[in-house]
């Protein structure tokens, strides 16, 4: 985060499929420090968008998180993250532990139902953090870049939606998303993800998840307003001693933005990997466009050099002197220059990956 006014990233106007002059870029600000893990956002999202339930079966190591991850039928997902680092012994014991059987056995031995220590339970909550994950509606949207049919489009609010009647189910968008958001429906094979409640936005309503959040952990508004709110919230937390608070996806300097700038900003207190988020992210096509272009130019120059060399050799028999030698030298120089450009691009890419 930099001091002063931060320029809000915007998508190229040519990418916007729906035009409305008064429309502004809209998005989410998710403050994980006030998320209580109630999953009201998940329920509201599924109810409004008529999405199927994820089931309610408890899984080993799954806590109360029946959802598991974002998917074609889950457009909001509240992550449950336990901060304690488990030891090999505790992992081994937890795999064999049946809490229900232990409680029943203790009740039989004592003859009374076990009591819950409310104060201890509340204090124990500090070991857990929660985050409501959602589509990032990136400026450099990998899913949209990879779509061959134009099913994924950018709206007037600079959000990304899937046109179900155009999607052919190819699945190219799935690996192109660096955040693992979009997925194919297991029934019809077509892609689906969060629309930021596009139908509600058109009627001037806020998305269902933000409307249902009881703690305002999820806030909705223009990207500019949300970034201002987010930065002030980080400053407040720092003043209270929470110096580990920072913004993910908002307020970064130009060239350092995740996927060109996110439409969904998060306030985190742990490294992004703890929340299942990548530390660096961009559209695969945008990430490789510079090196690929330079490599293509280098290859073109090398090909042109080859033609020049061949032409010089062909003329050598009919034209003796400096002109023939000059043609060969020019061709060699072009070839060397093209190869040097390609090598520089490759080296730069390797250095970026190591960093």
Structure summarized in a few sentences:
This protein is of the alpha+beta class. Helix content is 39%, strand content 12%. It has eleven helices and ten strands.
Your description of this structure?
- The chain is α+β, with helices and mostly antiparallel strands and 355 residues long.
- It contains 11 helices and 10 strands.
- The protein has a 4-stranded mixed β-sheet. The chain has a two-stranded antiparallel ribbon with strand order 2-3.
- The chain starts with 25 loop residues before the first strand and ends with a helix.
End-to-end CA span: 19 Å
Number of strands: 10
Main sheet, how many strands, which sense, barrel?
4 strands, mixed
Low-confidence spans: 290-296, 320-325
Coarse structural class: alpha+beta
Helix-strand string: EHEHHHEHEEHEEHHEHEEHH
- SS field, number of helical segments: 11
Order of strands, main sheet, comes to 8-1-10-9
Q: What is the global morphology?
A: globular
Percent of sequence in beta strands = 5-15%
What is the C-alpha radius of gyration, as a whole number of Å?
27 Å
- State the helical fraction: 25-40%
Give the integer mean of the pLDDT values: 79
Secondary-structure blueprint of this entry?
Elements: E1 26-31, H1 40-49, E2 77-82, H2 88-95, H3 99-110, H4 118-124, E3 128-133, H5 142-146, E4 152-154, E5 160-162, H6 173-176, E6 183-184, E7 191-192, H7 198-202, H8 208-212, E8 218-222, H9 223-239, E9 246-248, E10 264-268, H10 284-316, H11 322-354
Parallel strand pairs: 1-10
Antiparallel strand pairs: 1-8, 2-3, 4-5, 6-7, 9-10
Helix pairs in contact: 10-11
């Amino acid at each position: 985060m930099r001091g002063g006014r931060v320029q809000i990233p915007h998508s190229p106007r040519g990418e916007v499929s729906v035009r409305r002059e008064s429309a502004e870029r809209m998005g989410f600000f998710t403050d994980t420090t006030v998320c209580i893990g109630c999953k009201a956002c998940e329920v509201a999202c599924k109810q409004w968008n008529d999405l199927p339930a994820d089931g309610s079966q408890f899984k080993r190591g799954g806590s109360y998180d029946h959802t598991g991850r974002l998917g074609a039928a889950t457009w909001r997902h509240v992550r449950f993250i336990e901060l304690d680092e488990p030891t090999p012994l505790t992992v081994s014991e937890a795999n064999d532990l049946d809490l229900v059987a232990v409680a029943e056995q203790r009740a039989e031995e004592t003859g009374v139902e076990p009591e819950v220590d409310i104060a201890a339970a509340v204090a124990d909550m500090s070991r857990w953090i929660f985050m409501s994950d959602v589509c990032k509606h990136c400026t450099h949207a990998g899913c949209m870049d990879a779509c061959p049919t134009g099913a994924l489009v950018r709206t007037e609010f600079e959000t990304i939606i899937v046109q179900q009647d155009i999607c052919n189910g190819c699945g190219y968008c799935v690996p192109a998303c660096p955040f693992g958001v979009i997925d194919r429906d297991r029934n019809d094979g077509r892609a689906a993800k969060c629309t930021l409640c596009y139908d509600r936005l058109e009627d001037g309503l806020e998305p269902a998840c933000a409307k249902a959040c009881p703690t305002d952990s999820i806030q909705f508004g223009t990207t500019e307003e949300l970034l201002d709110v987010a930065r002030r919230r980080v400053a407040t937390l720092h003043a209270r001693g929470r110096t580990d608070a920072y913004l993910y996806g908002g307020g970064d300097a130009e060239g350092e933005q995740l996927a060109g700038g996110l439409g969904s900003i998060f306030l985190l207190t742990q490294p992004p990997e703890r929340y299942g988020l990548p530390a660096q992210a961009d559209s695969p096509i945008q990430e490789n466009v510079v090196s690929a272009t330079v490599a293509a130019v280098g290859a073109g120059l090398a090909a042109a050099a080859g033609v020049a060399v061949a032409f010089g050799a062909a003329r050598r028999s009919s034209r003796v002197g400096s002109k023939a030698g000059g043609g060969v030298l020019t061709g060699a120089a072009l070839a060397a220059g093209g190869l040097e450009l390609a090598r520089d691009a490759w080296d730069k890419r390797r250095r970026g990956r190591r960093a």
